[in-house]
């Protein structure tokens, strides 16, 4: 694949997203699934590419032909209509980490357009489903 390899900080962040947040699309329907991989929102070659990522299960990432799932590839518009805009899902994912007391790298906060002081739920601002504690 095109793009540079992830550095150690990016790899730790991806691991944290996958293990703590799990599939952000599954979370929209109240499910937790941490059997996920990272989806690059805007490709792999741009400067913040490895920070602009979402944790997604296989069925929400690629088209596996399974009923009940809308994958981001190749159905980006349908995916966003069902689960929320990818940038809003990114902010939700970061906010879940912050709410859980995890240290989020500054580069991840910058990519999401957030600051460390941002402790309120972004879900209400984004029009996406609300994220509650313990979900």
Walkthrough of the structure:
This protein has 135 residues and is mainly α. It has one domain: Herpes Virus-1. The protein has 7 helices and 2 strands. A two-stranded antiparallel sheet has the order 1-2. Helix 1 (8-21) packs across helix 5. The protein is globular. The relative contact order is 0.16.
Alpha-beta content class? mainly alpha
Helical content, roughly?
Answer: 40-55%
The arrangement of helices and strands along the chain is HHEEHHHHH
- Describe the strand arrangement of the main beta sheet, using strand numbers: 1-2
Number of separate structural domains: 1
Shape: globular
Distance separating the two termini: 34 Å
Question: Which architecture would the CATH scheme give at its second level?
Answer: 2-Layer Sandwich
Provide the residue-averaged pLDDT: 85
Number of helices: 7
Poorly predicted tracts of residues: 118-135
Name of the CATH class: Alpha Beta
The radius of gyration is: 14 Å
- CATH topology (level 3) name: Herpes Virus-1
Number of E strands:
2
Q: What percentage of amino acids are in beta strands?
A: 5-15%
Main sheet attributes: strand count, strand direction, barrel closure: 2 strands, antiparallel
Question: Could you name the key traits of this structure?
Answer:
135 residues; mainly alpha; Herpes Virus-1; two-stranded antiparallel sheet; 2 strands; globular; disordered C terminus
């Amino acid at each position: 694949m095109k793009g540079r390899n992830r550095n150690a900080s990016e790899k730790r962040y991806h691991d944290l997203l996958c293990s703590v947040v799990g599939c952000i699309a599954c979370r929209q329907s109240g499910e937790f699934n941490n059997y996920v991989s990272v989806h690059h929102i805007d490709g792999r070659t741009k400067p913040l590419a490895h920070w602009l990522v979402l944790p997604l299960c296989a069925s929400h990432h690629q088209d596996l032909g399974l009923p009940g799932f809308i994958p981001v590839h190749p159905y980006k518009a349908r995916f966003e209509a069902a689960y929320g805009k990818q940038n809003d899902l990114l902010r939700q994912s970061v906010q879940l980490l912050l709410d859980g007391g995890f240290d989020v790298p500054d580069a991840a906060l910058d990519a999401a357009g957030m600051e460390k002081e941002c402790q309120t739920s972004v879900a209400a601002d984004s029009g996406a489903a609300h994220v509650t504690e313990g979900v």
